[in-house]
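Title: [Solved] Protein kinase domain-containing protein 3D structure

Original question kept below for reference.
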Amino acid sequence: MAGGSLYDYIQDDNTPLKYQDTFDYMDQILSAMVYLSEQQIVHRDLAARNCLLEAWVRLRPQPRISDRRGRNQHNPHRRDASGRTAWELPATTKDRHT
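Solution (posted by the thread starter after getting help):
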């Protein structure tokens, strides 16, 4: 499946996902996330739909950087208007009083 997402590949009944391939994909995704972390970049939208497959069925990470000002550093303790840090899920602060 050239150019498709990992999500589409997983959902396709005509291409069964092999056990070893699952671990290979997880290893590649983890390596990409470690690299982004080392660059102090928070992806904020890691999902199978955002992992693209090349023609030979290897993952090609497509990070989506949320910093619109072009800075490559991220303060993990910075909070938005709702009181969440960039990496927190909205559900985790549902009952938080700020």
